[in-house]
């Protein structure tokens, strides 16, 4: 059974339909890239998967022991966060908030998990620094460490490299690839960077006027026929 | 200076109402500053302002129907408004903003109208001024009100400490919290209720127009200098208590209005913290 299956999914905001008839699935250990132009509904799709926005119709099925709320989420940064007075440690630890349940305080295990993830993201030296003083790439790594505290199985990343410089971008992609390959974490990434998607992903979901879902090779074959330059141009726009 | 201290000492030892004022002042300052950090960071400062006007309207209603103990009624109305405001604020930002402005001016206008039409008081403008700027009400608290205030503050503090970690996660990133299964709406609701309670309490101290200052200033000052959520919260609480104590003492000794003196001290503290923040270079310009 797949980790996540979407059947005949129809998404939209406040009753207004953006996309319909979405059928795709992600297995344990997959690296799925969701591509599409701006405004094609990528972020809405992600929010629907996370349960932040209700699906208009169709269903989302979680399998393989994955429960709703056990997906790590790396959102796009908001204004509130850019000048938020919080230390790296506090933010990463807040990823454990949902596993607190009714308990008011974090346990030693929570703190250890947070520290492990801080180390994994190479943030150990920054752990007491203030979030708003970090560079864009460092901030993304902090949020990734937080997402890892909330999940063992699946990560959803919403344009994780937007606004990052080329170095930080490469670093981010490597980190995500490492998590996917070494820890077997399923990665679902929204992106409009088609080059990177082709380099790292093993499955691709392209949404927009035409919907495509399949392996990377199938996608390559399809856009090869349609003309790479044209497709690439549309995606980067 | 020594004379001033003597005067203060005599007041505190001789008059129980001065002691009440100090106790209630410290508690209110503590509660409002703790929640202030969250409110400011969540961009909810304006809700505090709107609610304080609602509380004013509620107070006039209580006065018109001649309730002897007006606190429960005011508390009810303000809590309900807080919940409603948060509901609208969640769906669309601009709508929520306009709703707050609408409710706050309506409450103010209706409140003043009611007072004008039904009040038998000979000193109407004095009454209004007291409610808005809280000039003396802190010094005329009954023992019941003091106990009610202590009890409510204890509840607020307990809620804040017990939900501290969840409040942090919901404040920093509501979407993430919701996506990972934290009941964000529930905590928003709790926050709204707690805010309403604090505002009703604080109305006694500084009057309904100046409550926002009590909520916002300590948090903003602390944010100039400190850089973790915990240190900002602690600093904001300590600063707020110190400013309030200082303000009450100054107003007792020099006979200035309590509320505005406290706010003036808060402003001074904000200025000092801004300068410290600039020089320590911790906050980027």
Blueprint of the fold:
The complex is a heterodimer of chains A (237) and B (285).
Chain A (H helix, E strand, L loop, with lengths): L3 E10 L2 E11 L4 E5 L6 H9 L6 E6 L8 E4 L4 H4 L5 H6 L3 H4 L7 H13 L15 H15 L3 E5 L7 H17 L3 E6 L2 H7 L2 E4 L5 E4 H11 L1 H9 L1
Parallel strand pairs in A: 3-7, 3-8, 5-6, 6-7
Antiparallel strand pairs in A: 1-2, 1-4, 8-9
Helix pairs in contact in A: 5-6, 6-7
Chain B lengths: L1 H13 L1 H26 L3 H20 L6 H21 L1 H26 L5 H10 L9 H20 L1 H9 L1 H6 L4 H23 L4 H15 L3 H26 L3 H23 L5
Helix pairs in contact in B: 1-2, 1-12, 2-7, 2-10, 2-11, 2-12, 3-4, 3-5, 3-10, 3-11, 4-5, 4-10, 7-10, 11-12, 11-13, 12-13
Give an account of the 3D structure.
- The complex is a heterodimer of chains A (237) and B (285).
- In chain A, helix 5 (108-120) crosses helix 6 (136-150) and helix 6 (136-150) runs parallel beside helix 7 (166-182).
- Chain A has helices at residues 42-50, 79-82, 88-93, 97-100, 108-120, 136-150, 166-182, 194-200, 216-226, 228-236; strands at 4-13, 16-26, 31-35, 57-62, 71-74, 154-158, 186-191, 203-206, 212-215.
- In chain A, 40% of the residues lie in helices and 23% in strands.
- Chain A is α/β, with parallel strands linked by helices.
- Chain A is built from 10 helices and 9 strands.
- Chain B has a single domain (2-274), classed as ABC transporter involved in vitamin B12 uptake, BtuC (Orthogonal Bundle).
- The radius of gyration of chain B is 19 Å and the shape is globular.
- Chain B is built from 13 helices and no strands.
- At the A-B interface, strand 5, helix 3, helix 4 and helix 6 of A face helix 8, helix 9 and helix 12 of B.
């Amino acid at each position: 059974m797949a980790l996540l299956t979407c059947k005949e999914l129809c998404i939209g905001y406040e009753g207004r339909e953006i996309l319909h008839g979405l059928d795709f699935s992600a297995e344990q250990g997959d690296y799925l890239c969701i591509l599409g132009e701006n405004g094609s509904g990528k972020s809405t799709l992600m929010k629907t998967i996370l349960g932040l926005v209700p699906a208009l119709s169709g269903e989302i099925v979680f399998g393989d022991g994955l429960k709703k709320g056990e997906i790590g989420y790396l959102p796009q940064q908001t204004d509130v966060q850019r000048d938020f007075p919080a230390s790296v440690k506090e933010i990463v630890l807040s990823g454990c908030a949902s596993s607190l349940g009714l308990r008011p305080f974090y346990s030693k295990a929570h703190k250890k998990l947070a520290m492990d993830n801080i180390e994994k993201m190479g943030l150990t030296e920054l752990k007491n620094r203030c979030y708003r003083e970090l560079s864009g790439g460092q901030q993304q790594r902090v949020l990734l460490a937080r997402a890892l505290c909330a999940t063992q199985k699946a990560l959803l990343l919403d344009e994780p490299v937007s606004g990052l410089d080329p170095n930080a971008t490469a670093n981010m992609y490597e980190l995500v690839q490492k998590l996917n390959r070494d820890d077997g974490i399923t990665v679902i990434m929204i992106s409009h960077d088609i080059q990177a998607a082709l380099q790292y992903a093993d499955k691709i979901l392209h949404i927009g006027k035409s919907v495509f879902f399949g392996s990377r090779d199938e996608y390559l074959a399809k856009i090869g026929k349609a003309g790479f330059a044209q497709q690439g141009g549309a995606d980067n726009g | 200076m020594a004379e001033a201290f003597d005067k203060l000492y005599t007041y505190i030892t001789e008059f129980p109402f001065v002691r009440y004022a100090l106790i209630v002042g410290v508690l209110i300052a503590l509660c409002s500053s703790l929640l202030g950090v969250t409110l400011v960071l969540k961009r909810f400062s304006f809700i505090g302002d709107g609610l304080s006007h609602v509380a004013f309207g509620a107070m006039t209603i209580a006065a018109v129907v001649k309730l002897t103990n007006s606190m429960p009624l005011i508390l009810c109305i303000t809590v309900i408004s807080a919940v409603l405001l948060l509901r609208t604020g969640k769906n669309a930002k601009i709508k929520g903003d306009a709703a707050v402005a609408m409710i706050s001016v309506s409450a103010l206008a209706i409140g003043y109208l009611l007072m004008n039409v039904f009040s038998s008081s000979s000193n109407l403008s004095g009454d209004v001024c007291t409610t808005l700027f809280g000039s003396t009400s802190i010094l005329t608290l009954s023992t019941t009100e003091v106990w009610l205030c202590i009890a409510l503050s204890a509840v607020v503090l307990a809620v804040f400490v017990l939900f501290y970690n969840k409040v942090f996660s919901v404040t920093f990133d509501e979407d993430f919290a919701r996506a990972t299964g934290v009941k964000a709406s529930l905590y928003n609701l709790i926050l709204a209720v707690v805010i309403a309670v604090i505002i009703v309490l604080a109305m006694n101290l500084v009057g309904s127009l100046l409550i926002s200052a009590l909520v916002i200033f300590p948090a903003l000052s602390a944010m100039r200098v400190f850089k973790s959520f915990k240190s900002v919260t602690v600093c904001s609480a300590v600063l707020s208590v110190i400013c309030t104590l200082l303000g009450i003492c100054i107003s007792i000794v020099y006979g200035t209005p309590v509320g505005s003196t406290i706010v003036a001290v808060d402003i001074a503290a904000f200025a000092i913290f801004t300068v410290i923040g600039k020089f320590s270079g911790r906050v980027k310009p």
